[in-house]
Amino acid sequence: MKNIKILNYGNGNIGSLINVFNFIGYPASVVTNYEQISKADLLVLPGVGSAVSSSFIFDDKALMEQLNLFNEKNNPILGICLGAQLLFEYLEESKSHGFSWERGIVKKMNFYNTGWSELNWNQLVNYKIHSGLKINDCFYFNHGYMFPNNEDFIQKVVFDKSLTIPSIYFNGNLCGIQFHPEKSQLQGTKILKNILKFYYDI
Amino acid sequence: MTYKRLIGTLIVKDDFLVKSYGFNFYRPAGGILSALINLDWWFVDEIFIIDISQKDQLSVKLLSEIKKSGCKTPITYGGGIRNSDDVKVLLQYGVDRVLLETLLYSETNKLSEIKNFIGSQAIVASIPIYFDGNDYVSWYHLSKFKIRILFKDVFSLIDSGACSEYLIVDVNNEGKEGYFNLKIIEEIHNLSNLFTNGCLFYGGIDVNIGSILLKESFTVGVAYGNVNLEKELNMIKIRSTINDKSSTNEVRNLNILR
C-alpha cells in the first residue's frame, strides 16, 4: 500500500481527490502536519482555484523547507491544474514566483478552456502512462492559464488534441497534469493508476 | 478546443430533489444521491446542482449527499452562495465550479473575494431571462427587490473577468420539454458587437432544441433538467441523436465512452 498524501494549501477539491484515490484502491489522506510530507510515497498538489490565494504557501518557511527537501530527494510529486502550475518559476495570475522546480512562466491564455478534450498521445502511446486508455478518451479541462511547454527541460509532454495546450508533463520525479483526472470519469482514474505504476511499477 | 457539453441539472428545494416548472411549481423527484450516481454513471459531461431553497446558508445534508456520491463528473453548484468561505466549503465536498447570480451585480467585493479564491474560470454567471412585452430582460435580487437588467448588459461579465461562462435560463419555459424560446438566440445574434461566447442554455430543452442550440458558435453546452431524471438513459439517447444530426461531432461521441 502506498502512502499518498494530498497537500491542503487552501485551494483544491480535496473531497474529489480523496474519492478518486479510494476508487482506484490507493486511499489518500490530507497532510495534517508538515512532517508527514517526508514519509509520503506520492505527494499530490491539488488545484481548483486561483494562484492569487495560494501564494501565501511560499511564505510558510517550515512548509517550504519540507517541500523542497521532498523534491530534492526525487520523491514523486503530482500537480493537478493549479497544483501543476505552481511548480514553475513565475505565475502571471498572482504575479508571483512558484516553487521554481521547473523553468518557465505560467501564462494567461486568451480564452477559458473549459470542457472535454482528447489528448495527442503520439509517441507516448506505448508508454505506461497511456496503458488501458483509448486514443480518443477525453479529459476534463477548466483553466484560464497554462504551464509552458519547455521541451528543452522537460522529458515528456502530452498536448491536447488541438496541440495548443500542454496537458501532461513528466520530468524526473515531477508530473504535472493540466486537466482534472479526478473529474474525468473512468479514463481519469486510469491515468492516476498509471502514474502510480509509472513511479512504483505496481 | 473542447467538445460542447451535455449537462444534467438537478434542482433541489429544501433538501429534496424536485421537478421544477418555471421555478414556481415543484414536485418531488426522488433521491439526490441516486440521481447524482446515475448521471455520473451515464457520462453526462457536467452536472449542475441548483439549490433554490433561498436559505441563508448552505445545506449540510445536500453537501453530504454530493460527497457520498463520489462523483467523478465535474459538478457546478449554485444557490445560497454568500462568500468565499462558502466556496471553500463547497470544494471540500466535491464541487468544482460555482454558479452565481445576485453576487455578480450587488456585492462586488464578495465577488472579488470569490474570484481571488477560486478563479474566474470556475465561475458561471446565472442569467435568468424573460420577455417583458418589450425587451428580453434579466434580473437579480437585491434585498426584497427584483432589479431589472437589460439582456445585453449581462454580456460584459466575461470581459470584466467576473466569470468564464453564462448560463442563460429560459425561466418561463423551465420544465416544459421542447419549449425553449429560440427568440433568445435571435436576441444574442443581435448583440453581435458584444463578446457572447461561452453560453450555456437551460430551460425547456429537448433533443431537437439541444441540437439547434449546439450549432451556434457561442454555445458551449446545453443543460437538461426534468427530462432526464426518470430516464437516465435519455442522456445517452440525446448524445447519440445529437451526434447523428451533426456532421461535426459537437459533443463527445457515445461510441468512445467506456
How would you describe this structure to a colleague?
The complex is a heterodimer of chains A (202) and B (258). Chain A is of the alpha/beta class. Chain A has a single domain (4-199), classed as Class I glutamine amidotransferase (GATase) domain (Rossmann fold, 3-Layer(aba) Sandwich), CATH 3.40.50.880. Chain A has 5 helices and 11 strands; from the N terminus they run βαββααβαβββββββα. In chain A, strand 5 (90-91) and strand 6 (96-97) form a beta hairpin. Chain A is globular, with a radius of gyration of 15 Å. The termini of chain A are close together. By secondary structure, chain B is α/β, with parallel strands linked by helices. Chain B has helices at residues 32-41, 60-69, 84-92, 102-106, 108-118, 183-190, 207-215, 233-245, and strands at 5-13, 16-21, 25-28, 46-51, 75-78, 97-100, 123-131, 136-142, 145-150, 165-170, 199-202, 219-224. The radius of gyration of chain B is 17 Å and the shape is globular. At the A-B interface, helix 1, helix 2, strand 7, strand 8 and helix 5 of A face helix 3 and helix 5 of B.
